[in-house]
Amino acid sequence: MIYEDVALDAPIRQGDIFIQVPKLEFSLEDIYFADIETDDGFNQASWHEIIQAFKLKEITDRIRVSVPVTCVSAIVATQDCDARRGPDITLCEIRRFCDVEKSIANATASKRFVTAITKQSRINLKWFYLPPDKEIGFEEKMGADFQVTLRLQREELEKFRFLRKKRLNDVADEHFRERIAEFFRRYPYDEWYPLNKEEFASYATEHSQEPPEPYQWQI
Length: 219
Prior knowledge:
Blueprint: E1 3-4, E2 16-24, E3 31-35, E4 42-45, H1 47-54, E5 63-66, E6 69-76, H2 80-85, E7 88-96, H3 97-100, H4 110-123, E8 127-130, E9 142-153, H5 154-159, E10 164-168, H6 170-185, H7 197-206
Antiparallel strand pairs: 1-10, 2-6, 2-10, 3-4, 3-5, 6-7, 7-9, 8-9
């Protein structure tokens, strides 16, 4: 398919696929923290309360927090040159494609899915489609979500290259590079802004699940 094997000692590069990497998730409103100077165990507070209580710029010198960790698959988004020398490497989380692009979730028939994936890949820049591959552990259609990123220290990730299963082949890697570049440099705008009042009303009806906000000339 679109993947190729990679030697264990090969440098990390864009398009490398890792499994079981840690994803940290925490709430700014609900943090379990410990003061390492007093060593009185973990307490619970909001991030604002912690900042106010300690009044420290470099709060990590004194505070340790407990956060949930989940194992996820992810693909390297950092460009090759930075992946070789930079201090950190950015990866995009890989999830089930039906969760990444919900508009195609019900396209189960092969012909319908082909039409949907080829059309959406031209107009939706938020993801990159990854077909199933049992050797990686992808039992179903997957997608790299450009909106969900992870940052790991490069030197540490290099020590865990055994978690890298495969990488994109040349054809897929070139497409991936362009897709992610387009995503981060895209110009955000409301596509309905040039519509008149009647045209906007029709547009709003077709997009009732995410109602657009009308401009003054559309009211």
